[in-house]
């Protein structure tokens, strides 16, 4: 039996423009340039507005020569509709500037014209014939270029560790079969410089990828050759092997021998700093144990990062905001070096003008204009999204600066106030998710260094005075207490809790342990030194 149901639903959907704005808002300045280039590649109506230096000089000369002409002041960037079409005659340019914006309306002159215009009433060209309506998104909040260029880091042009290892492999005395195994081993090295894959799995890779049947002993023989390459400790399968490979290259004195014994026989005790057990097992005196431990601590546990440039590329932190303090007056600007000023291509406006003047408007021309209209709308939306992104970034950062004014004035971590995302959202009248996207992966350059925006958000800790203290302030005090402790008798979490309570911070032991872990500080037993 068929039934007919009527349901009423209320749903909310994001428009494509809103989705585009959200995606642009959450990316940092360092990635914005790549995103803009991708958009320019897929949308020919979007182009970068970079005036040619030679054209500017010529324009300045023309202005100086025509200073007596009363109409010369009108010939500038704001009043010229199409500055890129210099090959056209001056008369045509003047006619184009004076031409009013046409409106597509049915005419009564004849049936042919009426029919042609009726087919194109859905294309409103008046919104696309004025370049001034589609201005670039660069604003006054954009930072100056000279100051940004001064701090531009140099890129690392040296080769990678992988290239270095392959070069060393070519100089090794290996046959073609062994060199193929060596290349597979080097390709299996991870970012830390270790080979964590099973040798049997590497043998299977060689069989499937290169049709090369090898045994595990053959791979181990080539692995020992690769482990002699620089940097020391490369291609180890675990931490003890990595450290032992480095000790093999040191002078084999008493301290080195004792260090090898510690790593070979008592590595578990060494990792947990159970020094009395090590002394008991290896029959070492206090001085001998201390010297051997010092030798081990000087070794590199991650040799993958010690090559020419490691297995990865050097990355530089690019701030999204620049804050300066001019005698108590804060000046906040956006770092816009990687955001070129965009505009809609004047050629597309010319296409609309040509279409409007055309006597015959066939189907092919209509399809072409429809395509141009879509690309032009997309370019407008993208420029609006960039402009809206910059407005949102500035509003959010200005609110953060106002709430944390004491910190930005002195740079003292103890001046940070408790602040959560909700505080900023209420202050600027936006949703918490919007503030979260702004704070994510963004940073600000101040006179005291570069800080991620998340650094300024912290919880509140109750104090004896009745005021809330920032958790960042408590972490700073906790770090200072641990830094001044006796390394022979480190402070436990219970003792740290009592010391913080004595300073007026109402904090529990589990909170002390949580903050200590967030600071990447180990427990008291692992902080003990000889």
UniProtKB/TrEMBL annotation:
Domain RNA polymerase sigma factor 54 core-binding: 155-348
Keyword Cytoplasm listed: no
Record-annotated RNA polymerase sigma factor 54 DNA-binding domain positions: 370-528
InterPro entries attached to this UniProt entry: RNA_pol_sigma_54, RNA_pol_sigma_54_core-bd, RNA_pol_sigma_54_DNA-bd, RpoN_core-bd_sf
Alphabetic keyword roster: DNA-binding, DNA-directed RNA polymerase, Nucleotidyltransferase, Sigma factor, Transcription, Transcription regulation, Transferase
Region entry Disordered, spans: 36-159
Ranges of Acidic residues composition bias in the record: 46-86, 121-134
Family to which the UniProt record says this protein belongs: Belongs to the sigma-54 factor family.
Record's protein name: RNA polymerase factor sigma-54
Species this chain originates from: Hymenobacter segetis
Gene: rpoN
